[in-house]
Amino acid sequence: MDKLISRWPNNQRIAVLVTVMFEVWSEGKAPPYSPMTTSLKPGTPDLLGISWSRYGGKTGIRRFMKILDETEIKATICLNAKAAELYPDTVKDLHRHGHEIAGHSYTQDLVLPYLSPQEEKEVVQKCSRIIESAVGTRPVGWFSPVAAPTVHTAEFLAEAGYLWHGDYNDTDLPYAFDTPKGILVAIAHSDFTDNRTLRSSPRDFYNVYKDTFDYLYQHEAPSIINLTVHTHFGGRPLMSAMLRELLHYMKGFSGVWFARHDEVARWVLKQN
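Above: the chain sequence. Below: its structure as tokens.
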């Protein structure tokens, strides 16, 4: 199918998708990256790295919720399903505040290409069950850890009733495509997430997206920005300040559609 959309609802010029990565790791595991400049020897428990990763569920996600409430923007939360087990009240609050809860594997270190097809299918089903149990509705969107799907992922998602799949970077605008089990909408991943600034200035994040927004708003319509942040890094004051400033800047323009991924997916399917 692969037909790009030609307009947004009400002929809005640009869609801005706020994507929050709510990630957790397996017990005793730390993210493979951090602001620390000295790596420990392989096999050494990284206690500071583990502590750093836990900031997202304990602190960062609540700061994001405050900023999103203040700006009256509904986001898509890409959730490692284990986070719904560790922070059930927070995930319920996210859903109650109108944010979309999307699948993002069970833990961030459960990477799909390392699984057999049957194991991968079971992970999709397990995450769907956990999220539905947490918020009362099944997820309709999926983004794979480290943006790494397999040749089977799209088919498994369509079979499980998903609408959109976020592991794509072949074009800017979303499009519908066929799988053996039904139609999905491809939504491109962000080109510049918050963790690109781990060892630079958070202001770089603001400048990149302000300049991109200004260019697209003036020269290309319809256009889209996928503004992606992580709870364990972007949820810290140094980065959240930049997100808040960006959102207030973009809210100052007419013709901007602040949309959840599922809203974009349904619009694309309607156009097709």
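The longest helix spans residues 47-71.
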